[in-house]
Specification:
Elements lengths: L17 E5 L4 H12 L3 E6 L2 H11 L2 E4 L5 H15 L2 E6 L14 H29 L2 E6 L12 H22 L3 E8 L5 H6 L3 H10 L8 H12 L10 E4 L5
Parallel strand pairs: 1-2, 1-4, 2-3, 4-5, 5-6, 6-7
Helix pairs in contact: 1-8, 3-4, 4-5
Length: about 250
């Protein structure tokens, strides 16, 4: 597969807006932080990886908060602090998730609850926490991150795929409630994105061949490709887009 050049797109409506990213220290999240900072947004992000988070904050000018998203009370406190310092959050990107593999036959109730907390629960409570700020601002854009993995019947991580399927249901279930307040909510569904983590942990030669067979476009799907859609959905150009799932997967599902 050939690697495309980094994407370049500018949305004037995003300049100066307060943006909040979950799971922003590495991978797709780090590219989101970088992309929105490049649009002259006031970007804040949370992650557990303190060293990587601090380094990215120094590089981009974004604000980093170390936070375990299973602690929804702390997440709410961070969101409130960001709004007080930078003005009301206008864009929320619920990106954080963990696709750790597991055998469903060995899953305990405690592990199942943890997978839901890591991959789904915090997204709802982040939305709940930013609602008042978006209401104050008069509008907002919420982007929940799904996954093509459950569409493709990918096994070995039921806690993750179940959560990602539920993300789309949550988006649809909140769209009408939020729409009355001029707040848009969509799901961005990435394909198999070639982040350093994926290449290191999961993408060997067999998987590369599987991806090439699956994708209609025969090149690597990059985090920048996901960012291009996220920037559009966050901007005023997408003002009539809500309750939808936008798939960026190279034409796989």
């Amino acid at each position: 597969m050939t690697t495309p050049a980094p994407l370049s797109n500018t949305y004037p409506s995003l300049a100066g807006r307060t943006v909040f990213v979950t799971g922003g220290a590495t991978g797709i999240g780090a590219e989101l932080v970088t992309a929105f900072a490049a649009q002259n947004c006031k970007v804040s992000f949370v992650d557990l990886q303190a060293e990587a988070g601090q380094a990215l904050a120094e590089k981009t000018g974004a604000r980093f908060f170390e936070c375990d998203l299973r602690d929804t009370a702390k997440l709410a406190n961070v969101i409130n602090e960001v709004g007080e310092v930078d003005g009301p959050i206008r864009v929320l990107l619920n990106n954080a998730a963990d696709d750790t593999r597991h055998d469903f036959r060995e899953v305990t109730e405690a592990y199942w609850d943890d997978r839901i907390a890591v991959n789904l629960r915090h997204a709802f409570f982040a939305i709940k926490s930013v609602h008042a700020q978006m209401l104050e601002a008069g509008s907002g854009s919420i982007i929940n991150f799904g996954s093509m993995s459950w569409y493709e019947c990918q096994g070995g991580m039921t806690g993750y795929t179940t959560s990602k399927a539920a993300i789309e249901g949550m988006t649809r279930g909140l769209a009408r409630d939020l729409g009355a307040d001029n707040i848009r909510i969509n799901t961005l569904v990435p394909g198999w994105v070639m982040t350093p983590k994926q290449k290191e942990m999961w993408v060997g030669e067999d998987v590369k061949r599987e991806i090439e067979r699956g994708q209609s476009l025969k090149r690597e799907l990059l985090a920048q490709d996901i960012c291009a859609m996220a920037l559009f959905l966050a901007s005023d150009d997408a003002r009539m887009c809500t309750a939808q799932s936008f798939i960026v997967d190279g034409g796989w599902i």
